[in-house]
Design goal:
2 domains
Length: about 525
């Protein structure tokens, strides 16, 4: 209640200054006018619902918007002086904020990118572009063993748990998903009432801690899983193997965030730090993984079932594919997370040095599935710094069927990257369990922003595809995406990577794949 006290105190000072102006000297009217204006601004800040920063930090919060307003001029100052040797890219956060608020404008004076710099990427447009489709394409998720297929949107909310996010943030994301008809991944933190209240489509994610379907000793509770997976809002279930920001280790939820409600949702003790183990207890080999995915699908009543991972060893990916072939069982989808993914609690060394970036990871999984003849049974999702329509088209051209976004969706609900996620002191109420801070996030306003951001970003992707002469994401190909590899050379992704043919690994593996294919063992996770 400190913010109310501060505004109240400001009002008292304003009244005192007015009294001094009347009783002592008219010169006090100068100070009185300023204080009355500030008090009025403070009252408005507390009452408005559009800006979480102002609700938590009345009056003072306007300094942020003042600095944001002069940012383009500061950026231009440094660009003109080549301050760090590189031009600034347009701030992705600005794109997300503008789309979420419905205020996106055209960018004057063309690209800010150095089109001759190594690594610059661009799409190949067509001399015969097509009109943007009236109907937004959706991707059917569901292989031959799936009884309840689901039509996935091209852009969805990626995995973020209740506990890591506040209740209001989860409510806003889910209501936005319900408004826009796209999916909301729950993250590994369990299935809460905040995920269910607004009826948005859910992908229920199960991690190594089995939160929400957890036995007292930390194992998998099949009965509880089946009961919750039967909920109408749960459209798909997903097994989390690893995530891009911290591959190879489990998640951490600090004790101060584990209140009674989160403890109940996760089936864990209240007030104690929750550490997810780095490994799963329900499987220990590729073959056991495939069988467990099939068991999850059966327990869920035939809903689409898959797993998410950040790619490490190509040999292990091939081992899982061999297990699928041997067992005759496939997941309905696989989500590939990139090492560039974000989180509020990852060791710096893991974030910087472990895990395969999304481009290589996605292409590896796509190739492995094509090479083993399984690609037509499994849909691929891509997650890892997907924030713009161009990001979406890039991942679709590299082999994905659909995309997920986490960080951009957090921006849409008001995240300002204060980097206080782990302290429970998020200034805008996104990543906190402090009810006084979380109340600043207005669910009605922020859910509309989530909806607008997703809608505008998908529209941007479709517009790009139309300029490339493409009607549907299925028609995108690697040769349509190009990269400058040095100042004089441009290569298409068709040339940069070797793309396997259907079933090629089963018949005659190419030389670059022979060693890994031969060593891949469906009964061992051999590195």
């Amino acid at each position: 209640m400190l913010r109310f006290a501060a505004v109240g105190l400001l009002g008292l000072f304003a009244l005192g200054a007015v009294w001094l102006a009347v009783a002592v000297s008219p010169w006090w009217w100068v100070l009185a006018g300023v204080l009355v204006l500030l008090a009025a601004v403070g009252v408005w800040d507390l009452a408005q619902r559009g800006h979480s920063v102002l609700r938590n930090y009345p009056v003072l919060g306007h300094l942020r918007f003042l600095l944001e307003g002069v940012r383009p001029e500061l950026q231009q100052y440094f660009v003109e002086r080549n301050f760090d040797g590189r031009p600034f890219d347009r701030d992705v956060r600005s794109i997300v904020y503008e789309r979420a608020k419905g205020t996106e404008a055209e960018e004057p004076f063309g690209t800010e990118r150095d089109v001759y710099a190594d690594g610059y990427e661009f799409f190949v447009h067509s001399m015969a572009p097509k009109p943007q489709p009236d109907q937004v394409p959706r991707i059917r998720i569901g292989g031959p063993d799936c009884a309840k297929p689901y039509d996935m949107a091209l852009l969805n909310v990626s995995a973020m748990s209740f506990g890591s996010l506040s209740a209001n943030a989860v409510l806003a994301l889910n209501r936005g998903a319900a408004l826009g008809g796209f999916a909301h991944d729950t993250g590994e933190g369990g299935l809460s009432e905040y995920h269910l209240r607004h009826g948005g489509d859910l992908v229920w994610e199960i991690g190594t801690g089995y939160f929400g379907c957890r036995t007292s000793d930390g194992g998998f509770d099949a009965a509880e899983f089946a009961e919750k997976a039967a909920h109408e809002s749960v459209k798909c279930v997903s097994l989390k193997l690893s995530q891009g920001a911290k591959p190879g280790i489990g998640g951490v939820l600090p004790g101060p965030k584990v209140n009674a409600e989160i403890a109940r949702v996760r089936d864990v003790p209240e007030g104690k730090t929750v550490v997810s183990p780095p490994y799963h207890r329900v499987f220990g080999t590729p073959r056991e993984l495939v069988r467990f995915v099939a068991r999850m699908r059966e327990l869920s009543g035939g809903k689409p079932t898959g797993f998410k991972l950040c790619v490490g060893s190509r040999r292990q990916i091939l081992a899982v594919c061999k297990a699928m072939v041997a067992e005759g069982v496939t997941p309905d989808f696989i989500v590939v997370d990139g090492a560039e993914g974000g989180t509020g609690a990852a060791p710096l060394e893991f974030a910087d040095h472990i895990g395969t970036p999304l481009t290589e990871g996605l292409i590896t999984v796509h190739n492995a599935l094509v090479g083993t003849g399984l690609r037509d049974r499994i849909k691929l999702g891509a997650s890892g710094k997907v924030a713009t329509g161009a990001d979406m088209v890039k991942r679709l051209a590299q082999g994905a069927d659909y995309t997920n976004a986490a960080r951009a969706m957090m921006f849409a609900v008001g995240c300002i990257q204060a980097q206080r996620c782990h302290t429970n002191k998020c200034p805008v109420g996104v990543t906190t369990q402090d009810p006084r801070r979380a109340r600043a996030l207005d669910v009605g306003d922020k859910s509309q922003r989530v909806h607008r951001f997703q809608q505008a970003t998908v529209s941007s992707a479709l517009q790009i595809m139309a300029s490339m002469g493409v009607d549907h994401p299925d028609d995108l190909r690697p040769h349509m995406l190009r990269r400058r590899v040095d100042p004089h050379t441009v290569r298409s992704y068709d040339e940069l990577y070797h793309w396997l043919g259907h079933g090629e690994l089963l018949v005659d593996p190419p030389q670059g794949w022979v060693a890994d294919w031969t060593a891949a063992d469906p009964d061992h996770f051999t590195v």
